[in-house]
Design goal:
binds iron/sulfur cluster; Endonuclease Iii, domain 2; 12 helices
Length: about 230
């Protein structure tokens, strides 16, 4: 078993099977990504489920909804609700005009074309498009969001650089030989690394003393060594 697989196994033992978003298929997942801004997952869920209940989760439903219905829902999703409504309408418009209302059709395209199709939607860049495809069971590597990226850098893959994109690429290059092939295993890894970054391996003040993979962690070992150097020896 690769070191990467061992770490994911430890994380799964610690956190349990990872929770997947309630959004199903590319259209709902694009909407999920655009449900709120800089708010916790609980609020994203609240806005998404309100859209399901009060509008419907198809491009036609969203397109037909009035601003009077959409704006109060968008306000629950944080700052700039008008922009959010605009983006929801864009999501509906692109899906109706370019995909005949059925964004599932992109899952039949070659990977690069499916990714390109998703990147037309608001707030969906390369990692976002890869994540949506992964959650739909289509994988080509391991997309990472900021939490997962931080965890892997601390565990010793890649190199932290000022430029986020360079850090991202260095981690991707480093983990590539160890990645599992199956989409299901990659999905678990993506979700567990994200959970670990949010729960214990926090940006400021990681809780290394509670961490199930601390024995594997270069960051924790370096921090402990610096601490020992700083403590006066008798
Ligand atoms: S030991 Fe600390 S820094 Fe390393 S992965 Fe665990 S929480 Fe993160």
């Amino acid at each position: 078993m690769s070191r990467f697989a061992q770490i994911v196994t430890h994380l799964k033992r610690h956190y349990g099977a990872p929770a997947v978003p309630p959004a199903k298929g590319p259209f709902e997942l694009v909407l999920w990504e655009n449900a709120c801004y800089l708010l916790p997952d609980e609020r994203r869920l609240e806005v998404f489920e309100a859209l399901r209940r009060e509008v419907g989760l198809t491009a036609a439903d969203l397109n037909a909804a009035s601003d009077e219905v959409l704006l109060p829902l968008a306000k629950r999703g944080g700052m700039r609700p008008e922009t959010r409504v605009f983006r929801w309408r864009e999501i509906a418009r692109i899906t109706l005009n370019q995909f005949d209302g059925d964004l599932d059709s992109i899952l039949k395209l070659p990977y690069a074309a499916a990714k390109k199709a998703l990147k037309q939607f608001p707030n969906i860049g390369d990692p976002g498009a890869e994540k949506i495809l992964l959650l739909c069971g289509v994988a080509n590597g391991l997309p990472l969001e900021s939490n997962g990226l931080r965890v892997l850098v601390r565990l010793g893959w890649g190199r932290l650089q000022k430029d986020y994109g360079k850090t991202y690429r260095s981690v991707q290059d480093a983990i590539k030989p160890e990645l599992p092939a199956k989409a299901e295993a990659l999905k678990d890894a993506h979700l567990l690394l994200r959970t670990h970054g949010k729960e214990l391996c926090k940006d400021k003040g990681p809780l290394c003393h509670q961490c199930p993979v601390s024995a594997e962690c270069s960051y924790a070992q370096t921090t402990a060594a610096s601490f020992m150097r700083a403590v006066p020896q008798r």
